[in-house]
Amino acid sequence: MTNVLEVTGLTTTFSKNEKAFKVVDNLCLQVKRGESVGIVGESGCGKSVASLSMMRLLSKNGSIAGRIQLNGADLLRYSEKEMQKIRGKEIAMIFQEPMTSLNPVLTIGKQLSEGLEKHEGMNRVQSRQRVLELLTQVGISRANEIYHEYPHRLSGGMRQRVMIAMAIACHPKLLIADEPTTALDVTIQAQILDVMKKIQRELGMSLIMITHDLGVVAETCDRVLVMYAGQVIEAADVRTLLRSPKHPYTVGLIKSTPHNAKGQKRLHSIAGSVPTPDHYPKGCRFAPRCEKVMAVCLEQNPPLLDVDQQSECRCWLYRENRESTAVNG
Amino acid sequence: MKTPLLQVKNLNKKFLTRKGWFQPPSYVHAVHGVNVTVNAGETLGIVGESGCGKSTLGRCILRLIEPTDGEIVFEGQNIRSLQKADMQKLRRDMQMVFQNPFDTLNPKLTIQHILSEPLIAHGIPKRERAAMMEETMEIVGLNKNHLSRYAHEFSGGQRQRIGIARALMLRPKLIIADEPVSALDVSIQSQILNLLQDLQEQFSLTYLFISHDLSVVEHIADRVAVMYLGEVIELAKKEELFQRPMHPYTQSLLSAIPITDPDEKKERIILTGDLPSPSNPPQGCKFHPRCWACMDVCKTEAPPFTETDGRLVACHLYEK
Amino acid sequence: MFWSRQWSVPRLELWEKIMQQKKAKYSFLMMLCIVLLGIIGPWIAPHDPTKTYYEAFMQGPSKDFWLGTDAIGRDILSRMLYGTRVTLTVALLASVMTFVAGTLIGVTCAYLGGIVDNLIMRIMDIMLALPGIVLALAIVAVLGPSQENAMIAIGISSIPAFSILIRGAALSIKQSGYVEASRSIGSSNWWIITRQFIPNISNVLIVYTTMFIGSAILGTSALGFIGLGAQPPTPEWGTMLNEGKNYLREAWWLATFPGLAITAVVFTVYLLGDALRDIFDPKS
């Protein structure tokens, strides 16, 4: 299968008060056609900035290095104008809080059909027809009524459905969902994830799911990248990652989920807190919080190492592994 | 049988919403006839989705919001009849931990100022304050050198520890924790949950733990009350509730939790529709428009919250 | 005092920010000069402000009298230097009055809400319906014209506008979690108002108070101009302006220099207020 998106060495730097902070550090990512890739991490790990970088939606003080290839074309070479044509049509994005992306003074129908009329050159009647189709597709039963509603009259779940409808209107090849269900209640979250999976299947679309919730990843993704302090620290297919996590951080993260602690009195916890980009430690960025910290961890940041050809893991614990594979191959 | 520390009897809170001066007033019934009992030393979890009235219930118990009617009995005393000054004194025994650690600490005050507030409010002499603050800081896992800093110098988890320290300063009997971990990352969340459990043991605290996150409640609570549109619809021991949920809403709520185990396949009950507006709740059972087991009687008659088979549930399915 | 310690950090930041921004820096330095003149004015004045020089009635600017003399032969420069102190004192004290009363009313109304809020705010609305100067006039008319009464009148007449502005700012603080946390702890209302509200609206307070000092200077001069402020022979800019207006054709310097002084000071204060607002609210 071909890669829809190929990101190599993506590094996003923000400058503030003449200091530069690497918020995303050397991110590599491939997304195949129809595949869902999850990016998991806690707040401040750079997962949202990574997604905004892929859309080239950063504010002025952020700069991007590396390569972002969409169907073989490097997005970083495009001008802002060309990028505008790509957004929505080739890659679409949905956010945690849909209200910020919806115009409060326009009806849902108007907002959805506007894009269709502009991008696809439809006339009024066609676009209306298509909008109603889209709304039905995302599971809105009263599409006709919702068409004439204003965004603030809708519930959070409804708004997120509308956002999804808007995102898929021009058949994008890739959908980036940044914490799409974090602001929603569990029962609504279940509905939205369901709709997203259904639509992805129907359209053969690729998906990048950015979330802090391993449960959401388990439900929706094929492959997962775990990010910590701006770097990918582990990448594997979802089953391998959740069943046999390699990196001590991933292990800790999975163990500290209350659901996985059934019958235990105390939860597993990772001491300390996530470092901010201006205070990254020397060596491995997780070392100060790591239970299995070794001397080398404090000195050198490990590269992404191959572990059993199943996962990649940024941890010195698996150094032996690489050396042995190097000998073999 | 222990004597209950807190009894909430038939508590109601209606918020007046007036669209204009000349329109008739309408009400949002945020808390509707809630009866719960909290025993000393236990943790009662209250779960429900946003808008179900769980936070309002917590604030009504502390009288931060004045309830419309009903009784709140704390250690045998109906606190709704207390004068303002007496209520102020009673706050020493019942404290609150809030959801958003970024919003509940005054950005212009040092931690020392924040922590001394409860001590000053309850007349602790000045010479005792410093020692108490230092002790409490250590108990919640912070350094006493942190006292001179401002809230913005701390991470989310540390701020929540400060919030807990503030609630703990006067060694209360009851702590109402309103979504204390939902603004935190998973790895920090588990630290705070562990801390809350340690404190409970150390100071024999009683918790009313309000959360939307079922797995968190499952971990920390002894008994769980499920709320839907202002009403408690099911109340049971944790093990019973999570192993054999009775109310259809509870069942769907449980089935909706995303699970990290890719091999654990489960029957998903996906509810149709949204939470109805609390200002215009459905007739009969409030859950019936979204319920897959809806019967005719559900549309007209609200089910009573009664005990059936040793379980408290408000659903017509279990009526004999 | 409640603000002594908590405010130390924001104050330091404020100082740095003022020095970073051009507009703020210069307007602040100018303001400093004006205040300094008000303080040391009497010592550097070349003449006695009330002494009549019989040999020099209505003389234009000259080597002896840099800004000329007035209709009864008094030195204008000296009168203006003395007048700086009078005008500034009246304006500052009036602003302090507005600040204290307006802050308390505004914050209390926002915090308590309900009937108290409604009642006080309706009274403020009624007071606001009259232009500030008319209200001040009415107050002076009742109390009698004098420097102190002018101060009281200006102070009172700015309270409604000030308290409504502060109430608006405080309402956003009311929604915050720390106010609720404070209530749940069992703190008294006074404590909540002074510890939770006021430090957090200090930015707004500083900006609005600066702006109100500007209008208080205008008000002081206006009352002086119509003879209801400081009474002769006390030198005061508004009074001097009034005395000079009859001789504009024959002796332009009588009214021009006090007029310029008023304009310059008010301009400086407003500039400073504007700069402070830019510092505190970078969005607008």
UniProtKB/TrEMBL annotation, chain A:
Q: Name one GO biological process term.
A: peptide transport
One GO molecular function term of this record is: ATP hydrolysis activity
Coarse class of the protein's main subcellular location: membrane
Keywords associated with the record: ATP-binding, Cell membrane, Membrane, Nucleotide-binding, Transport
* Protein location: Cell membrane
The keyword Membrane belongs to this UniProt entry's keyword annotation: yes
Keyword ATP-binding set for record: yes
- Record-linked PANTHER family: DIPEPTIDE TRANSPORT ATP-BINDING PROTEIN DPPD, OLIGOPEPTIDE TRANSPORT ATP-BINDING PROTEIN APPD
Q: Report the sequence similarity comment from the record.
A: Belongs to the ABC transporter superfamily.
Question: Which protein is depicted?
Answer: Dipeptide/oligopeptide/nickel ABC transporter ATP-binding protein
Automatic annotation (TrEMBL), chain B:
Q: Provide a GO biological process annotation.
A: transmembrane transport
Q: Which residues cross the membrane?
A: none
Q: InterPro entries, alphabetically?
A: AAA+_ATPase, ABC_transp_ATP-bind, ABC_transporter-like_ATP-bd, ABC_transporter-like_CS, Oligopep_ABC_C, P-loop_NTPase
Assigned keywords, A-Z = ATP-binding, Nucleotide-binding, Transport
GO MF term set: ATP binding; ATP hydrolysis activity
User: Is RNA-binding a UniProt keyword of this protein?
Assistant: no
Report the domain of life of the source organism: Bacteria
Q: Where is the ABC transporter domain?
A: 6-254
Family recorded in the similarity comment: Belongs to the ABC transporter superfamily.
Query: What NCBIfam families does UniProt report for this protein, alphabetically?
Result: oligo_HPY, PRK11308.1
What name has this protein been given in UniProt?
A: ABC transporter ATP-binding protein
- Protein species of origin: Brevibacillus formosus
From TrEMBL, chain C:
Does the keyword Repressor belong to this entry? no
Q: Where is the signal peptide?
A: none
The name this protein goes by in its record: D-ala-D-ala transporter subunit
UniProt keyword annotation of Transmembrane helix present:
yes
GO BP annotations, alphabetical order: transmembrane transport
Its record classes its membrane topology as: Multi-pass membrane protein
Instruction: Give the chief site where it resides.
Output: membrane
Q: Which organism is it from?
A: Brevibacillus formosus
* GO CC annotation, single: plasma membrane
Regarding protein family, the annotation reads:
Belongs to the binding-protein-dependent transport system permease family.
Q: Name one Pfam family in it.
A: BPD_transp_1
